[in-house]
Structures are given as structure tokens and as C-alpha cells.
Amino acid sequence: MDRNDMTYHPKSDFMRVMIERGFLADCTDYQALDEALINGVVPGYIGFDATAPSLHVGSLIQIMMLRWLQKTGHKPIVLMGGGTTKVGDPTDRADERPLLTEEKIDQNLAGIREVFSAYVTFGDGKNDATMVNNAEWLDGLNYLEFLRDIGRHFSVNRMLSFESVKKRLEREQSLSFLEFNYMILQAYDFMELNRRYGCLLQMGGSDQWGNIVNGIDLTRRVIGGEVYGLTSHLLAMSDGRKMGKSQGGAVWLNAEMLSPYEFWQFWRSIPDADVGKFLKLYTEIPVEECNRLGDVEGQEINASKIRLANEVTTLAHGAEAAAKAEATAREVFEKGGTGDDLPTLSLTAGDIGDGVSVVQLFVKSGLAGSGKEAKRLIADSGARMNDEVVTSAGLLITAADLAQPIKLSAGKKRHALVVLG
Is the CB of residue 420 less than 8 Å from the CB of residue 349? Predict the structure, then answer.
């Protein structure tokens, strides 16, 4: 399948947004998709597997693509992978994913559903979003019929040529037959969505190109008609960090798993070089303004980061949460206060006993991923307690020390409170 010339000038609002704001990596047929978008409502989907109780910001570029699809007059389909999660996507994995129970998958799906209501509008209108679970058609498949009717359309030679598979094989890492089937199931999803919902477009990260092309080929062979694929760039920060990860772990989109303050702080702390790009991808600020905000330097770039943090947090958690996060940050950084909205670790007298080590407090509060990381932070003079440098990893905190809340700081920008509950 040809990847058309990226110099194509779009006529549809959606394709214009994808190109101007920097989403678009590849498309199976720019002109044909553009014409379809002009001529009517195009239902388009992205799939999300339920491997955790929330999505993190690594998925936010895809969520924003669905949001823009709806804002430009088309129909987003959020495909929940209740079926495919039972198999596991081998894409960009060095090993096999752990298999989850159906109960755990259902719990994860419930958490992920919460994310989308902030970004797209669900309903019965022609361009209202719909959420579908692929367990509806995958759970009841008859294996022999599936092999006969669907499996015969796939070439193993071609599947072995896909980058996600080649990398695993080149590293001589195990790729189970279970995972190898994933790409067939994803292709089958596209065909079923086309049959049931008239879906014409599958989107995803550029690592999904092979799977998307498989789905297009299968749909054309079995059903006929034109369907399309579009991929976004895979993002990493300019300092090399993987998108969606911070020192404290994954940057989750659900407030129950990561506070709006910590979420806000993640965006406030991104590298200067990423500000303009992230404004275009993760906010709805006009492109020209995004470029202007990203081109400033010195103190002005900090103001641009605050704008970014406020806009992204408003979309995810609401304007009130964003304003509260900014106020907390100002209190902590500018006024030296503790901030009412900081992540809080509540301990009982039983938890503390004769004393709890400061290393444990940094781990339990989420400011360090492990005891080893906390000790390194202390050794590098990056750990503070009530704004004083912690000099000993052996320091014990007693219940008496917690008569007043203790503020812990990891570096200059990450803070937490410890209170006696």
C-alpha cells in the first residue's frame, strides 16, 4: 500500500488539523480519505486495550485525534479491547504481556471509560461518539470457521516482515503464537466495525501501520469498498524520556491514579524544546499562537509551560482543577508554603511504630520509585524535608515529628505532604 506524498494540501478540516498541528505520520491514501471527509460523516476508530485501570499520557495523542475527528464533524468510535486484551499486543514489546483475568479486564475497562467523557461527546447523533467492546464479536468466535474464513487471507511471510515482529525475532526474544494472532484479530476488528458501524477509518500510532494495513486488506477482500488508515508520530520528549513516564511512574489520566496537581506539574516541567510542539498536539490553541508561545525564551517560556499545563489539565480534569493546581504550585514555589492540593501520604501511629525511615517516606509518597532511587536522591542532595536538605538516608521520622504535616521534596518541582491520620 502506497504512502502518499506528505506535501498533499488537504481540503477537509480534519486532514488540515492533522497536518498543521503535527499529528500525521502516514496515511494509506491522502486524497481519497480527504474526499471522503468532505463528502460526508466519516466514522473512525482507535483501539485501546485494557492492560491497566487507566490510560496514561502516552495515549493522549490518539485521544486528541478522536476529539478533533468529532470537532470537525465526524464520528469517533472508541474501541475497547475487552477481547484483544486477553491476547496481548506484541507491538514494541521485548517480552510477552502478562495475561489478565476477565474480572481484572472489566475493572480496567471501567477505569478507562472515565477518561473519554472528558474528551468526546457520546450519544446517538450522527457525529456523536460511540464506545464499543471487541469482546462482542471476538469472544464467540468459532476457531475452525475463523481459520477457514479469515486466516486464509493472511500471509505469514508478510506478517514476519512487520517491524514489531522483526525486532522481537532479531533479538531472539520469544513471540508466542498467541501474540502472533493479535494482528489478525486487530484486522478482524476493523472489518467488523466496518460491517456493523460503517467505519471507514482506523487510526493509531505509527507502530500500528502493519496492523492497520492488514485490516484494510481484509476488509476490502471480504466486504469490498474503500477504507483508510492514518497514523500519528510516536513521541518522546526532547530529553529522551518516553512520553507518559515521569520519575514517579506513569502519568495517568484518571484523577484517582494521579492527582490533577501532579498531572499539571508534569506538563509544567516538560523541556523547553517541546513546548510549541506539545501545545499544538495537546491543546486547541490556534497553531500560530502555539508557535509564538513555543519560540520565546527565558522567563517567557515558563509562562508558556504554565499555559500548556493549564490547557491540558482543563481538558482532562476541568478548569477548576487546573486553576487549583496552578495556585498550589505558586504557593509551593513562590511563597514557600505547603499547598493544600499536594499529593498527601496519610500514616497512622501503627504505620510509624518506633519510627519510619525517610527513605520509606519518599517511596510511599511516590517521590521515588524504589529505596535505591530514594537513597540516590538523598546522596545527590536532591531530597528535602520541610525545605531542608536531607543529609542521611538513615533518618527516622517519629509520630512526634508528624505533629505538623511534613513536606517532602524531590528536586525543585516534585513535592508531597506526609500527615498523621
Answer: yes
CATH architecture of the domain covering 344-420:
Roll (3.10)
Instruction: Please name the helix (run of DSSP H) or strand (run of DSSP E) that holds residue 347, with its range, or none.
Output: strand 344-347
State which fold the 13-232 domain adopts.
Answer: Rossmann fold (3.40.50)
Rounded Cα distance between 216 and 157, Å, is 18
Give the Cα separation of 343 and 364 in Å (integer).
11
Q: Please report which helix (H) or strand (E) contains residue 69, including its range.
A: helix 60-71
114 SS3 class: helix
Q: Domain 259-334 belongs to what architecture?
A: Orthogonal Bundle (1.10)
Three-state SS string across 182-204, please? Answer: HHHHHHHHHHHHHHHHCCCEEEE
Domain ranges of the chain: 13-232, 259-334, 344-420
Alpha helices in 198-317 (DSSP H): 209-222, 260-268, 275-282, 287-295, 299-317
**Beta-strand relationship, 383-385 and 356-357:** unpaired
pLDDT digits (tens, 9 = 90+) for 252-301: 999 988 889 889 988 988 889 999 999 999 999 999 999 999 999 888 99
Query: What is the pTM (predicted TM-score) of this model?
Result: 0.78
